[in-house]
Amino acid sequence: MLATVITAARDIQVQEVDDPTIIAPTDAVVRVVAACVCGSDLWPYRGVTPTTKPRRIGHEFVGVVESVGDEVTRIRVGDFVIAPFYWCDMTCINCLNGVSTSCLHGGWWGAPDRNGAFVDGGQGELVRVPLADGTLVATPGMPASELVPSLLTLADVMGTGHHAAVSAGVTAGSTVVVVGDGAVGLCAVLAAKRLGASRVVAMSRHADRQAIAREFGADDIVEERGAEGIARVKELFDGVGPDCVLECVGTAESMEQALKSARPGGMVGYVGVPNGGAELPIQLMFGTNVGANGGVAPVRNYVEELLPEVLAGTLNPGIVFDLELPLAEAAEAYAAMDERRATKVLLRP
Q: What whole-number distance in Å separates Cα of residue 134 and Cα of residue 65?
């Protein structure tokens, strides 16, 4: 089969690799219908995260189950399934507490499982899925093709944007600012509106992403950054700032922007993958009573909540995909996102 491999910074290759097979009785093998490139994939692509040897990459996919192990009972051959960006059992204490990213028995795509057997990356034609009954969520039937992009967002970006909003405590009537206009930030705008926010401001400098933010319900756009951006945000909210700020980038600058934009006593929900020295300034937070809550998003815990709305067509986060390419052109997909020629790229094996 074909699969995406990163060999070094800015070197993405699509290579012929071995087809996966059932190894453990709790496995499934899924034929990928659609995968995508994540903003976090750009950190190794840009060399921010070093690549010391060639490795498989990709962690978001949907597809159709081709085979299952003898102990898989909930997932069946022929099911259309959503795979979160990690695998988990959904039965351990951490999964039951809503933090399936800390599953006691789980792990990550493109890495060895707990027994040392390789687990495929998500950007390929086939993927071996450990703990299939816990990891995968099957749709009630074969979905319409136009729903596939939105279903794919439930593997990561829609659930992650939702986690930012939930972590910040967004509820009916909340005022919200979203820092970051990538796919996660745009989905955070959508999530905030879905949870009843009365006013949502998207911080964005890019006209194409501003248009998506508006479509997702953003009431205002702020293009300024740094001190000017903080001042502009506070001006929009009676000089004090919003109730909630959703940090969806992961840099020191974006975290500072978020913490200094929130009103005294406000809350920052952070989901941006940390890089570039992002830290929490306790002195600032102590002085303003601004809190911070978030982390790696347990999207598997959110799929059942969001899925019915996607299937009904009332929630359409798939708009974030503004470029679709065949898997064979994965290198171009990375380049397009790196160069901001695309917000998020969908790959079709």
A: 14
For 346, the token pair is 């969908």
What are the residue ranges of helices labelled H in the chain? 42-46, 93-96, 132-135, 148-153, 157-168, 183-194, 207-215, 226-236, 252-261, 282-288, 303-312, 330-338
How many other CB atoms sit within 10 Å of the CB of residue 219? 17
Please, what are the averages of pLDDT over each run of 10 residues along the chain (349 residues)?
A: 98 98 98 96 93 96 98 98 98 98 98 96 98 98 97 98 98 98 98 98 96 98 96 97 97 95 98 83 96 98 98 97 98 97 97
Chain centroid to Cα 130, Å, comes to 20
The radius of gyration of the chain from alpha carbons, rounded to an integer in Å, stands at: 20
pTM, two decimals, is 0.96
CB 167 within 8 A of CB 294: yes
SS3 of 157, please?
helix
Taking a C-beta distance cutoff of 8 angstroms, is the pair 181, 164 a contact?
no
